[in-house]
Design goal:
4 helices; mainly alpha
Length: about 120
């Protein structure tokens, strides 16, 4: 396939970005399946608009406030978890109590995350 340039001249500006391992693997697989180089793929599918981009809705003020409060609560939960872990390692907390506290903290964490679906 012949290389296409969107503008006159030789491409001279390098653009880079980071991805997590799963996203990088998915992108690499799409590029391989298309039979293009990374540059050709970006030029053809992104710059020539051969792809669909679905914009996310901006978060509502309620969701933004809830995320702020959950962040604060999450910080406190992490502190509690650390204190319980230290107490367990020093023998101040029994195995049963340790497991019960961690189970309750995990339950609370799942509950808070689940409430995000109720907003917006």
């Amino acid at each position: 396939m012949a290389k296409r340039s969107l503008t006159e001249g030789v491409p001279s500006k390098a653009i880079s970005f980071r991805l997590g391992e799963p996203d990088a693997n998915a992108l690499t697989e799409k590029i391989r399946a298309a039979g293009l180089s990374m540059s050709e793929f970006v030029r053809e599918y992104v710059l020539l608009n051969k792809t669909s981009v679905i914009a996310r809705r901006p978060a509502s003020s309620d969701r933004t406030r809830l995320l702020y409060l959950f962040d604060k609560a999450g910080n406190n939960l992490n502190q509690l978890t650390k204190q319980v872990n230290v107490a367990h390692k020093s023998g101040d907390v029994s195995d049963d109590t340790y497991r019960e506290i961690l189970k309750e903290l995990q339950h609370l964490s799942r509950y808070l995350k689940g409430r995000l679906n109720d907003v917006d």
